[in-house]
Specification:
Order of helices and strands: HHHEEHEHEEEHEHEHEHEEH
Distance between the termini: 55 Å
Radius of gyration: 25 Å
CATH architecture of the largest domain: 3-Layer(aba) Sandwich
Structural class: alpha/beta
Strand content: 15-25%
CATH class of the largest domain: Alpha Beta
Number of strands: 11
Length: 303
């Protein structure tokens, strides 16, 4: 049975015109005439039986139906383009895994270890895309994700990687000439926060048997990498998983203000849709990642 799908030329013309909100700019981008774009859009509207654009004094504007359709068409064309480039790059050989990853974990922990996987499995390409917040697998191209939280997601399988131990760090200049803080010193310093964890400092203080006034006040940053950079530049004291700032601590640009470490209830997981569990490349990556995580977490007691 013949598929009810418009021509690729019509979809490409529509996607470009929708993105630019201009037939003229779409024509320039696709190296065709404006009249050719008009014909393709007209043919698409006739095929769908729906108006996608309306004319205004400033040019063309997407209708509500056009806006909805444009989002979907853009997503599908992006997928086709990505798959095409992947096949061209591989020449028909090898495999690719698309991973969504929490950014700082990827930069500080995963990427330094990833060359060993590439060396062991040169036929598998790993593509990393940052995702700081939860998402739906069926709305992304991801085969798997590295997620931090207290459990997995519905409809997924997961592999435990490690828990996180939170340490309080700052620039050494911030507390000089001291090298540590006493309990009475905290009220004089700005606390830096990770924006999705408003109670992190309170939980950390509680684990030390302390209460500090204003423990939820202070600047907020979305990523731990931002938090670490702010602390490095003397903006305050940050609460960060140790394994994300080991390099900064080793170089002395950050110092741990007290020796206390708080084992957070949050953990890092590799998660993937249940239907991907038998993917051969994913199974190899999962086994490698489990081994890497175990080798790291056991000496650090992050199990």
């Amino acid at each position: 049975m013949r598929r009810k799908i418009p021509s690729t030329a019509s979809l490409s013309a529509f996607e470009s015109a929708a993105r630019h909100q201009s037939f003229t700019k779409a024509a320039d981008e696709l190296a065709v005439t404006q009249s050719a774009i008009c014909r393709q859009i007209g043919a698409l509207e006739e095929f769908l039986g729906v108006k996608l654009f309306r004319r205004s004094r400033r040019g063309v504007v997407l209708t509500e139906a056009g806006m909805s359709y444009a989002r979907k068409v853009t997503s599908r064309l992006d997928e086709v383009e990505r798959d095409t480039l992947e096949l061209m790059a591989k020449g028909g050989f090898g495999d690719t895994l698309e991973l969504g990853v929490v950014p700082t974990f990827a930069t500080k922990w995963l990427l330094p270890r990833l060359p060993s996987f590439v060396k062991q499995y040169p036929g598998i390409t790993i593509n990393l895309t940052s995702r700081a917040r939860p998402f739906l697998f069926n709305e992304t191209p991801f085969d798997a994700a590295i997620h931090v939280g207290e459990s997995g997601w519905p409809g997924t399988e997961g592999v435990f990687l490690m828990r996180e131990n939170l340490v309080a760090v700052c620039s050494p200049a911030l507390i000089a000439p001291r090298t540590t803080l006493g309990r009475a010193d905290w009220a004089r310093h700005t606390l830096l926060h990770q924006s999705t964890r408003p109670y992190a400092w309170r939980d950390w203080f509680t684990s030390r048997g302390m209460q500090v006034e204003g423990d939820m006040s202070g600047p907020r940053f979305e990523l731990f990498s931002m938090l670490a950079e702010a602390a490095t530049h003397g903006m305050g004291i940050a609460l960060i998983p140790r394994f994300l700032v080991e390099d900064e601590l080793a170089r002395g640009v950050l110092v741990q203000v007290v020796r206390h470490e708080y084992l957070s209830p949050r953990s890092y997981y590799l998660i993937y849709p249940e239907q991907k569990s038998e993917n051969a490349s994913l199974k190899l990556f999962r086994a490698w990642l489990e081994a890497q995580a175990m080798a790291y977490r056991e000496p650090m007691r992050l199990g």
